[in-house]
Amino acid sequence: SNLTAAIKDTFEKVSWVGFYLFDGQKLYLGPFQGKVACTNIAIGKGVCGTSAAKKETIIVPDVDKFPDHIACDSNSKSEIVVPLFHKNQLLGVLDLDSHDYNSFSKTDKEYLEEICKFLCEEIFASDYQSNIV
């Protein structure tokens, strides 16, 4: 939750940021900052579901040109989605939207992937998590 708040408060270009968590079948809404969002996303659908299916980061300069885009906020113009992994298992995705076109770059991709990798490592490094996983 704090990570989504930190990203939203730090980057003016970000209109929405949140996690969609994988339950083994679909993505469901986790911690987020921004307008009300879609609660469930099928794997392979929209930018989030496509990122999860391909297990790769997707940068979309213009969401209106992305096939099957899911528009939770009609003002969103661009998006980046970063998948989350632990031991090559999909955990979910981090989704960032912007009200401007072309808001996200390869630099954003690089650093967001590093943040997500660190976050996943920290979650699973704790004694509490390692006892329940």
Give structural attributes.
133 residues; alpha+beta; 4 helices; single chain
What secondary-structure arrangement, pairings included, does this model have?
Elements: H1 2-10, E1 16-22, E2 26-33, E3 40-42, H2 46-54, E4 58-60, E5 78-86, E6 89-98, H3 106-125, H4 127-132
Antiparallel strand pairs: 1-2, 1-6, 2-3, 4-5, 5-6
What does this structure look like?
It contains four helices and six strands. The mean pLDDT is 92. The chain is 33% helix and 30% strand. Strand 1 and strand 2 form a beta hairpin.
If you average the pLDDT, what whole number results? 92
Per the principal axes of the C-alpha atoms, what is the gross shape? globular
Q: Roughly how much helix do the residues carry, as a percent range?
A: 25-40%
Return the structural class.
alpha+beta
Count of helical regions: 4
Quantity of strands, as a count: 6
Q: Going across the major beta sheet, what is the strand order? A: 3-2-1-6-5-4
Note poorly predicted spans.
none
